Q: What sequence folds into this?
């Protein structure tokens, strides 16, 4: 069964990069444009992994993560946070939230694969 | 505190960071051209992100020619470089690149003891000049990427 990954980011660019990154793998990618949509998508899709941006309009990633952790049905879904901010303060704040890992933008696609593969099984698609 | 918040240090950091963003996200070289004259782009695409805190306020502008912005967007989205994209896609890519640049600056400022928050990116298109407010220091960094030029414009006010 395909690994289901939810990409939550207000930037279509980042959602496209995430989709492209996992394309060689047997993954199903779902998308949401902010935390509010991300929570709804998480409840609906029950993904194996969430790639979550920090800074978004409507509901940011930190708020979404807090709500995710309060929900008994969703709190065990692992989350990798994406952030453009690598400062100590920001990293410490993210670590306290209970995320499995984080990735600082700009990032290389192989860095995302490396972090995701520590959390979920990524099977390469057979060559066409 | 590992660094001092002064304009030359900010410029040094932004130079390294722009090179890193271009290399990591676009696999494109970017080289600072010291004391370069400001290129005249005509039609340009500019991303802007503001930052504000108790000790520091300002904004970062990333200026690209419309043609180069299209090429950068195609590369970042994994499309053929000659692909003509809609304005919305190009705006999103330039906004995200500006967000990465300013996010890095925010982290650098925070680590130097000047915590601040950043705005969401905005895009301006056209032929125009950005004016600085009084008592705001302004610096232009001009980079060469292949045959193209990129300008990073920094406005910063230290309180």
A:
């Amino acid at each position: 069964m395909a690994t289901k990954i939810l990409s939550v980011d207000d930037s279509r660019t980042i959602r496209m990069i995430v989709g492209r990154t996992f394309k060689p793998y047997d993954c199903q990618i779902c998308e949401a444009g902010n935390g509010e949509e991300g929570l709804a998508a998480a409840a609906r899709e029950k993904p194996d992994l969430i790639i979550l941006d920090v800074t978004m309009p409507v509901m940011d990633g930190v708020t979404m993560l807090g709500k995710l952790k309060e929900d008994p049905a969703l709190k065990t879904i692992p989350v990798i946070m994406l952030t453009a901010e690598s400062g100590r303060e920001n990293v410490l704040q993210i670590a306290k939230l209970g995320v499995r890992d984080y990735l600082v933008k700009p990032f290389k696609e192989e860095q995302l694969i490396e972090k995701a593969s520590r959390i979920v099984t990524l099977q390469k698609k057979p060559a066409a | 505190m590992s660094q001092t918040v002064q304009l030359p240090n900010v410029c040094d950091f932004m130079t390294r960071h722009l090179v890193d963003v271009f290399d990591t996200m676009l696999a494109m070289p970017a080289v600072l051209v010291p004391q370069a004259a400001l290129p005249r782009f005509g039609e340009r695409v500019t991303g802007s992100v503001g930052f504000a805190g108790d000790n520091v306020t300002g904004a970062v502008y990333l200026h690209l020619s419309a043609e180069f912005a299209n090429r950068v967007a195609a590369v970042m989205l994994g499309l053929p470089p000659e692909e003509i994209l809609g304005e919305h896609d190009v705006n999103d890519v330039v906004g995200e690149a500006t967000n990465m640049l300013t996010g890095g600056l925010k982290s650098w400022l925070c680590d130097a003891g000047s915590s601040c928050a950043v705005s969401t990116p905005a895009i301006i298109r056209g032929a125009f000049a950005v004016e600085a407010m009084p008592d705001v220091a302004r610096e232009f960094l001009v980079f060469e990427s292949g045959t193209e030029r990129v300008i990073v414009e920094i406005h910063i006010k230290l309180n």
User: Anything to note?
Assistant: The radius of gyration of chain B is 15 Å. Chain B touches chain A through 27 residues (CB under 8 Å). Chain B has a mean pLDDT of 90. Residues 87-111 of chain B form the longest helix (25 residues).
